[in-house]
Write a structure and sequence with these properties.
By secondary structure, this protein is of the alpha+beta class. The protein folds into two domains: 132 residues, Chitinase A, domain 3, CATH 3.10.50; 65 residues, EF-hand (Recoverin, domain 1). It has seven helices and ten strands. Strands 1, 2, 3, 4, 5 and 8 form a six-stranded antiparallel beta sheet that branches. A two-stranded antiparallel sheet has the order 6-7. A two-stranded antiparallel sheet has the order 9-10. Strand 6 and strand 7 form a beta hairpin. The two termini are 28 Å apart. The protein binds calcium ion (2 copies). One calcium ion binds next to strand 10. It comes from Cyclotella atomus. It catalyses: [protein]-peptidylproline (omega=180) = [protein]-peptidylproline (omega=0).
């Protein structure tokens, strides 16, 4: 697997950030359901371990000590497809795990997430600096039977848009831009490009990549 420092930047969604226990104890998460049901049968209520589809707009909260208040840093709405995540078991930031469990399908809520339950003291990129308080406007779209493909899926194939079994600089740039990281992080090259030729092959890549080299089939 990728080392944690590389994983941090591979996806805003899948990553959790360590925070100090003392800070977490003091941190307050706010969840305000502004639309849809606030009470529902258990099978419509998000439980830990559920696979859910979720719309979100992530911005820097107006109360944030760092970053630009109101600045949107990521949104599923611009992609018009909700994201699929497994909730409540440490696969996403703590603010999502704690704030979304218990919500009903069809509800929309504003979550205000202190840095300790978000991206901590390190942040993610220039739009989400360390210490940022996050604001997520979310909608619980559905609870799904199957686990989200993205979590278990094939990150390599996702980045390798021309499907040639190698990740070149422009494919990596495009991928990181899509997750709002301006530049391909140096550590990506350091950890993944084992022979230093600025191409990350399927063999070199240590992240989720499926079981077969996509080029292996074309003999
Ligand atoms: Ca390629
Ligand atoms: Ca290489």
């Amino acid at each position: 697997m990728l080392p944690p420092s590389t994983l941090r930047i591979c996806s805003l969604l899948l990553l959790t950030s360590p925070g100090s226990a003392a800070a977490e104890a003091a941190a307050a998460l706010t969840v305000d359901v502004y639309s849809g049901p606030t009470d529902c049968p258990d099978d419509s209520k998000v439980q830990p371990g559920n696979h859910i589809s979720l719309h979100y707009v992530g911005s820097i909260d107006k109360s944030s000590a760092t970053g630009k208040p109101g600045k949107t840093f990521d949104s599923s709405r611009v992609r018009s497809e909700p994201v699929d995540v497994t909730i409540g078991i440490g696969k996403v930031i703590k603010g999502w795990d704690e704030g979304i469990v218990g919500l009903c399908v069809g509800s929309k809520a504003n979550l205000i997430i202190p840095p300790e339950l978000g991206y901590g003291h390190d942040g993610v990129d220039k739009d989400v600096p360390g210490g940022a308080t996050l604001h997520f406007d979310i909608e619980v779209v559905s609870i799904n039977a199957a686990p989200p493909e993205r979590v278990e899926g094939n990150l390599f194939a996702e980045i390798d848009t021309d499907g040639n079994g190698e990740l070149n600089e422009s494919e990596l740039e495009a991928y990181f831009k899509s997750i709002h990281v301006e530049e391909v992080p140096d550590e990506m090259w350091e950890h993944e490009d084992k022979n230093g030729d600025r191409i990350i092959t399927w063999e070199e890549f240590s992240g989720p990549k499926g079981s077969r080299n996509p080029m292996g089939d074309e003999l």
